[in-house]
């Protein structure tokens, strides 16, 4: 009889909310910093982790975001971006992830003069190599940023359009929800919708349920986080009725103080109400987590059953930014494999 942790580990998985710069291995940061002449506070793997990871006592979103400093510093060359994307495929496959979507903001990787299209191509090259090597499927989402000028964000949409049939599967809007509301980004999503781009939007993490409603109005098929949507029952009912999926990242939500403890997370209430939710790691290196670990938290802290966890995996597969044919095949494969986990 397999232990619960072994069952979760062997279970086929789908991850939809994952930031590339939050996945970089500590060992990779050390190697790349040496190659690029970047000074680190220490080159001891264990000691460096204190600069890269947060604890459950993380006090704010600001403290959380500080941890991206060193990953971003080494992600400014073509080879580094390609390597990091490739390594991500290997780690995901080792955890029995069948499909994942990883997102990043190309505009954060121009410090050494790389052009935006080369930045996207580098990540796609790494993903393409990794998909072949590790027998996994992956899609890339490009992030516009709330605090960036509209001209730059429109350039990111143009980039997504250019790479639409080459591995980029959608567009996201991330960043400071509180100070940069969605109302300033109508043009961005009008263009994305006109050009048939899939849309997910970070909302309902640092602000209230109204941000989720606005994201849906702008065309979001999925919501990044959506932790606060329970605060408005009417909006919650709309999420359920429309079938918009909430990309839940439990441990990250605790670290950014969207919730105080995992036990307080509303995801079980959402699931029981009939809202489609998926479980994700967000930034597994920074939060020192894994998809297996997140699912175990759902069972041990929030009372999900194994069958309910399986259902969330199916929800994730059904919400993948794939063609109808590819998505249907993914769902069939996932459902078939899940029957073997008892």
Structure description:
The protein has 342 residues and is of the alpha/beta class. The protein has one domain: TIM Barrel (Alpha-Beta Barrel), CATH 3.20.20. It is built from 16 helices and 8 strands. Strand 5 (198-203), helix 10 and strand 6 (222-225) form a beta-alpha-beta unit. Helix 6 runs parallel beside helix 7 (116-134), helix 10 (209-217) packs parallel to helix 11 (233-242) and helix 15 packs antiparallel against helix 16.
The overall strand count is: 8
Q: Uncertain spans, ≥5 residues at pLDDT below 50?
A: none
- Beta-strand portion reads 5-15%
Radius of gyration: 19 Å
Helix content: 40-55%
CATH fold assignment: TIM Barrel
The end-to-end span amounts to 9 Å
Multimeric status of the protein: single chain
Mean pLDDT, all residues: 96
Biggest beta sheet summary: 8 strands, parallel
Broad structural category: alpha/beta
User: Per the principal axes of the C-alpha atoms, what is the gross shape?
Assistant: globular
**Domains counted in the coordinates: how many?**
1
**CATH architecture classification name:** Alpha-Beta Barrel
Instruction: Give the SSE string.
Output: HEHHHHHEHEHEHEHEHEHHEHHH
In the sheet with the most strands, the strands line up as 1-2-3-4-5-6-7-8
**Given this structure, which CATH class is correct?**
Alpha Beta
CATH superfamily: Metal-dependent hydrolases
Number of helices: 16
């Amino acid at each position: 009889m397999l232990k619960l942790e072994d069952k979760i580990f062997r279970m086929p998985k789908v991850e939809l909310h994952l930031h590339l710069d939050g996945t970089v291995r500590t060992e990779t940061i050390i190697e790349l910093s040496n190659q690029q002449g970047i000074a680190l506070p220490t080159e001891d793997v264990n000691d460096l982790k204190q600069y890269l990871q947060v604890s459950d006592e993380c006090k704010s979103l600001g403290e959380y975001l500080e941890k991206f400093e060193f990953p971003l510093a080494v992600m400014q060359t073509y080879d580094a971006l390609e390597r990091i994307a490739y390594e991500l495929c290997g780690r995901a496959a080792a955890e029995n992830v069948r499909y994942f979507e990883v997102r990043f903001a190309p505009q954060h990787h121009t410090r050494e003069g790389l052009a935006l299209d080369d930045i996207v191509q580098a990540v796609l090259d790494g993903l393409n190599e990794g998909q072949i090597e590790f027998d996994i499927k992956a899609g890339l989402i490009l992030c516009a940023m709330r605090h960036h000028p509209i001209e730059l964000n429109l350039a990111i949409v143009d980039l997504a359009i250019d790479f639409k049939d080459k591995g980029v599967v959608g567009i996201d809007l991330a960043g400071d929800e509180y100070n940069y509301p969605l109302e300033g980004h109508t043009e961005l999503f009008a263009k994305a919708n006109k050009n048939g781009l899939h849309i997910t939007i970070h909302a309902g993490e640092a602000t209230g349920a109204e941000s989720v409603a606005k994201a849906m109005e702008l065309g979001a098929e999925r919501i990044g986080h959506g932790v606060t949507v329970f605060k408005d029952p009417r909006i919650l009912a709309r999420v359920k009725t429309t079938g918009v999926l909430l990309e839940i990242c439990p441990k990250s939500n605790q670290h950014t103080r969207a919730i105080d403890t995992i036990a307080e997370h509303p995801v079980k209430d959402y699931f029981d109400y009939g809202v489609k939710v998926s479980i994700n790691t967000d930034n597994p290196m920074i939060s020192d987590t894994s998809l297996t670990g997140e699912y175990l938290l759902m069972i041990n802290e929030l009372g999900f059953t194994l069958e309910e966890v399986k259902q969330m995996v199916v929800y994730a597969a059904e919400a993948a930014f794939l063609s109808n044919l590819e998505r249907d095949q993914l769902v069939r494969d996932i459902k078939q494999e899940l029957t073997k986990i008892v």
